[in-house]
Amino acid sequence: MCLAFLRFAPDDPWSLLLVSIRDEDLARPAAAPGPWWPETHPGVIGGRDLRAGGTWLAVDAAQRTVAAIFTPAATEPTAPGQPSRGDLPLRALASGGLDEATVGDYAPFALLLARPDDVAWWTWTGSALDHVTVEPGMHIANIDGLDAETTSARQARWREPFASSVPAPFRPDGSAGQRWAGWLDLLADGLEPEQPDALLLRRTVGDAAYGTKSVALLALGPAGLRYDESATPWDRGSWVTVC
Length: 243
Prior knowledge:
It is a single chain. This protein has about 240 residues and is mainly β. The chain has a single domain (about 5-240), classed as Penicillin V Acylase, Chain A, CATH 3.60.60. The chain is about 15% helix and about 35% strand. It is built from four helices and 15 strands. Strand 1 and strand 2 (about 15-25) form a beta hairpin.
C-alpha cells in the first residue's frame, strides 16, 4: 500500500473505516482478493502478488483484523535472498504484531495493524523497529509516516478531503456506492497522470509504468465487517464486494 486514510472511533459499532490505495509497477501480476493461503493462514483474505506470493493488504474476517504494508514507491528490487515484504501482513495477522526478530531480514517498510479496539503503526528502517499506538481520530499514512503532512505532499493534499467526507454513520447495506458515498466521489475523480500528489497515480518511471493498481475500502467493528475493492477505482461501476 502507498496511501491510506482511516477513521478510528472505538465506541462506534463500525470503529474502523479505512481507504487503502495500492500503487505498484503496473506490469506486476496480481490476483484479486481471495482466501489464497488456506493451509498457512486459514480464513485470511487479501489480494495476492503473483510474483512473490504475498499481499499488500490482508483481512482476517473472523477476528475482524486488517494488516496493510507500505513500501517506498518504485523501489529497487529486493536484494537476492531477501524476503518479500508481502509476507509481513500475513505474519502480523498470525502473531498479532511484529518484533525485530521477525523483520530483521526485510527491506524498510511501514505496516498498519488494526482491530476494532486497537490500531498500531509499525516502522522498520532496516536497523530499528518503531511501534506507535494510534489514538482515536482521523489519520492519514504512507511510507513518509503516520500523519506526516508536513513532509508528504500527498498526505497534505488529501487528509482534509477524506476527513470531511467520512461515511459516518456507516451504513453497511446496499451497494458500495451507497456505503462509501463521498469517498467514492474522491476516488472517481482522483486520477491525475504524472501529478506527484495525485490521489490515484499514473506516472512513468524509467521504461516502466507505475501507478494505482487497486483500492480497498473496509469497515470493521463489533457490528461486523465490510470489504469492497476495485482495480479501477475511477470507474464507479467497478467496485466488488469481497465480504
